[in-house]
Design goal:
228 residues; 2-enoyl-CoA Hydratase, Chain A, domain 1; 6-stranded parallel β-sheet
């Protein structure tokens, strides 16, 4: 086996491992100055989700984000979102980590950016949503037995305020609008909240622009160019 063939096999094995763990192929043959990160399915945090669910494990994403900050060859971060939400603290932790990276960042919502996916979408310098994508805004909730009612209620109040504060800090939506959408009673069966489709998310100031993948990538390249 010659050296070139050996390298090709090693690269293919590395690609397969990367796809399996992160859903991101290790592309060959181009300058990788942008780190692409996909957040799909359910954001899995402190507890392991059932095996029949598609998840993104936050402990897999954290090293990618740290590497993006530390690697001088990475000039920008591109976040691809199609998530139903998931672990609130894990999602908020990822959103804060993304927001804290001091390199140009763009997010695009494909399919859906629901629940804790909302702050993940707004965590970047510029956010894009495709026309067919949806975003669900609703209060956090729990299932099962709640012990210590008033204390638990206050805990959830504080958790909700943390999420709201992050969204208000990283988007253009007004607080009264966010609260109104969150507690609307005419859209979700047996629940409160609002579903925003495409340009509705832009109209309310939650997302910066409607566009496609090429538009979002061009925007990131523009931001990168402005920092050089």
């Amino acid at each position: 086996m010659d050296e070139e063939t050996k390298q090709d096999i090693e690269q293919e094995l590395e690609n397969n491992d990367t796809i399996k763990d992160f859903g991101i192929p290790g592309y060959v043959g181009y300058k990788k100055n942008i780190q692409f990160i996909s957040l799909i399915g359910e954001i899995e945090g402190h507890y392991v989700a059932p095996s029949d669910k598609k998840t993104t494990k936050y402990e897999h994403i954290i090293p990618l984000l740290i590497g993006s900050q530390q690697d001088p060859s990475i000039e920008g971060l591109f976040i691809i979102l199609n998530t139903v939400g998931g672990d609130v603290e894990a999602g908020l932790a990822l959103a804060e980590l993304i927001n804290g990276i001091n390199k140009p960042k763009v997010s695009i919502v494909l399919g859906g950016g629901h629940s804790i996916g909302v702050p993940l979408a707004t965590s970047t310098d510029y956010s894009v949503i495709v026309p067919s994508a949806t975003m669900t805004i609703h209060p956090i909730r729990t299932t099962g037995l709640v012990v210590g009612g008033p204390q638990t209620f206050r805990y959830f109040q504080k958790m909700q305020q943390r999420i709201n504060n992050f969204i208000l800090r990283t988007s253009k939506i007004r607080e009264e609008t966010l609260i109104e959408l969150m507690y609307a009673t005419d859209q979700l069966a047996n629940d409160v909240g609002t579903i925003l489709v495409g340009d509705e998310a832009v109209k309310y100031g939650l997302i910066d622009s409607v566009g496609n993948f090429t538009f979002a990538l061009e925007k990131l390249n523009e931001l990168i160019e402005n920092t050089r």
